[in-house]
Amino acid sequence: MTEHPNLSGSLFCRLQLSSEQLVRLSPRRVAALSVDDGRAWITRPGETTDLILGPGQHLCLAADGAPLLVSGFDSGRPAALCVEFRARAADWRLRLARRLLAPGGTLSGAWQ
Fold first, then answer.
1. How many of the other CB atoms lie within 10 Å of CB of 68?
2. Could you tell me the pLDDT band of residue 59, with boundaries at 50, 70 and 90?
3. DSSP letter assigned to residue 98
């Protein structure tokens, strides 16, 4: 099992990307990217080299860095990724979840 970096108050998102899919990630919102399975191809516009990350590898991002373009690397096998959002980008989601799940909140009694 991959151990992901953990920032206080951050949220995670899991992605599966094939070699035909491409996502753009902003370092102002994303703190780290980890590969759980497969391989990921990571490109930063303006840089001369790309990164290929395999299972168990992760990349921590400086908040002032260039955006990343991320894709699966192997054809026929998607890359399973974990994206960790910065606490301030995830802040509104955490506040909403606390409000909805608090006693007396909208979802607090939904499962009873």
1. 20
2. very high
3. H
Q: Which domain holds residue 70?
A: 12-101
- More confident of the two residues 15 and 88: 15
> Residue 3 has what pLDDT?
47
Q: Pick the range with the lowest mean pLDDT from 14-18, 73-77, 96-100.
A: 96-100
> In this structure, how many other beta carbons lie within 10 angstroms of the beta carbon of residue 19?
17
109 within some domain: no
Name residue 98's amino acid. Answer: R
User: Is residue 35 a contact partner of residue 79, using CB atoms and an 8 Å limit?
Assistant: yes
CA pair distance 52, 43, nearest whole angstrom: 9
Q: Note whether residue 112 is domain-resident.
A: no
Amino acid at 64: D
The closest alpha carbon to 17, from 37, 47, 44, 45, belongs to 37
In a domain? residue 25: yes
